[in-house]
Amino acid sequence: MPEVLGKTDLTIPEALEILKKRAAEGELSELQTRALTYLEAFAKCSAENAKRLVEELVERGVEKEYAIMVVNIAPQTVDELRTILAGSSKTFTSEELAEIAELVAKYCGSSE
């Protein structure tokens, strides 16, 4: 079993990018293949857009773990976004939520 050297939180698109690279290098295990299938089904944007969106959300005061959740879920409405951020230590105004929703649409919209 390989030694774990570190841990980092990733968005679904970032994890997908890693597994795709791994698949290109050689055969995946059954578990990795299942994970790849799942990630392909649920990635809502590119890994690069996911990284940029997390950075912008953190700059706007969203905690990183919540920023990752926002990217993974890619809420389409302010109400969905409000639900995701409800557990955050910061309270967001309706205007801030609308701005965040616009960012999500920009980076994870269907016109990627």
Tell me about this structure.
- The protein contains 6 helices and no strands.
- The chain is an all-alpha fold.
- It folds into 2 domains: 12-42, no CATH class; 47-108, HRDC domain (DNA polymerase, domain 1, Orthogonal Bundle), CATH 1.10.150.80.
- The protein is elongated, with a radius of gyration of 15 Å.
Defining traits:
112 residues; mainly alpha; DNA polymerase, domain 1; 65% helix; 0% strand; elongated
Which residues sit in consecutive blocks of at least 5 with pLDDT less than 50? none
Mind telling me the CATH superfamily name of the largest domain? HRDC domain
Main sheet record? none
Question: What is the number of helices?
Answer: 6
**Would you report the number of β strands?**
0
CATH architecture annotation name of the largest domain: Orthogonal Bundle
Give average pLDDT, whole number. Answer: 94
What is the general shape? elongated
Structural class: mainly alpha
Helix content: 55-70%
The domain count comes to 2
Strand content: under 5%
Instruction: Write the element-wise H/E pattern from the N-terminal end onward.
Output: HHHHHH
Radius of gyration: 15 Å
The name CATH uses for the topology of the largest domain is DNA polymerase, domain 1
